[in-house]
Amino acid sequence: MDSELIRRLAHVVGDDGLVLDEAAQAPYVEDWLRKWRGRTPVVVRPRNTTEVAAVMRLCRQSGTPVVPQGGNTGMSGGAAPDDSGAQVILSLNRMKRIREVDTVNNTITVDAGVLLADVQNAARDAGRHFPLSLGAEGSCTIGGNLATNAGGTAVLRYGNTRDLALGLEVVLPDGRVWSGLRGLRKDNTGYDLRGLFIGSEGTLGIITGAVLKLYPRPQGRVTAWVGAESCDAVVSLLTRLQARCGERLTAFEMMSAYCVGLVSRHVSGAACPLAGEHACHALIELSDAAPEGLAELLEQSLAGPLEEGLIADAAIAANESQAKAMWRLREGISQAQVRAGKAVKHDIALPISRLSAFIKEADAAVAREFPGLPIVNFGHVGDGNLHYNVLLPLDVPHEEYVHLTAGLNRCVHDLVVQRGGSISAEHGVGQLRRDELRRYKSTVEMDLMLMIKRALDPDQLMNPGKLL
């Protein structure tokens, strides 16, 4: 890279805003799954939107590609540079301001580099609730959540990150700033520019700030673990609970018996709260700003399905410790599968009404075409998002892993699309699914996305090689 550009970047962000040492760059150039590792001449760490805009103007003038990066916790390689050594990493990890908390409008305005956990804490300190919650919340940033339209465990009630954002501030590839930080729930004045940038994975511009929705802080929460003999029964239970509990149904997580056994074997202290064997399990949570009667509601809502035989067993957490143990069992799946083997992961979404049929078809197809490989099937069944993973042995050779991954992806994703689903639900496309898009997206969809990309980023400098 031209040393003059480095000098100009330092003038914008200060010497402490550049990471030039190769060893110090290590956390930035490799994704946390260690699947993608690249090189960069410099990591640029601006402190505010003005500095981001100045950096983008310099990069455009010099024709330098830019890889925006938040917490670098993504699952699809969307924030990792390539190995050319030509791409600048623009990290937002110094942009950590909580700009405003408005308890009347129920909004919080934050810099894009604020950790998700810090947004949650700021809302809690103000007596409010920010509902986005996922495993990496202590290290992921709200900008990355917006760039990938992250999901998590509360989508059933509150929606994806897209549904939680009212306004954005975005630096465009040419350095101009779109100031769309409006905390409006109604704004019918043209195209939805906010929605355009959410989920764009840094390929159209850099999100530097956001106005997010806040909600009343839940004062009551009750958690239950359910065992059933089929996914059909679990989906039927979901429908029953939605009708009975309404929006108080906050989470409805599903996992197979294999998942529960895997966590019990590989995660210390994790144990199923139910006796006996069950083909399918569900973790259910109700929450409300008014706690009265919440436990009784869940107990009554499960009583009928138990008596009818729709579900085989259920346990309601008697205290916070038991509730945390149930969540530990669900959240331990990712850790357990890392210890047990090498997972070929599928982050898929389907209409809830088609989940059971898909699982039956996919289980049969994987068993037929890839016999002997265990399936780690779990997910946010309340919003139709499955993590349908297939576990390979820890010692599988790399070449065989690559070959099997391609075959399994085709096997699973073909069935997903046939059932009207998506091959990426909450993890983003990044590098992982980029080349598969053309197989599963229509020509019209691909053309529209490419037209938008060319219009906003004609020099193709924003996060090249990702998404498109």
From TrEMBL:
Cofactor requirement: FAD
Keyword terms, alphabetized: FAD, Flavoprotein
Keyword Flavoprotein assigned: yes
Alphabetical GO biological process terms: respiratory electron transport chain
InterPro entries with a match to the protein in the record: FAD-bd_oxidored_4_C (IPR004113), FAD-bd_PCMH (IPR016166), FAD-bd_PCMH-like_sf (IPR036318), FAD-bd_PCMH_sub1 (IPR016167), FAD-bd_PCMH_sub2 (IPR016169), FAD-linked_Oxase-like_C (IPR016164), FAD-oxidored/transferase_4 (IPR051264), Oxid_FAD_bind_N (IPR006094)
Residues of the signal peptide: none
GO molecular function: catalytic activity; FAD binding
Record domain FAD-binding PCMH-type: where: 36-217
Similarity comment text for this entry: Belongs to the FAD-binding oxidoreductase/transferase type 4 family.
Protein name, per record: Hydroxyacid dehydrogenase
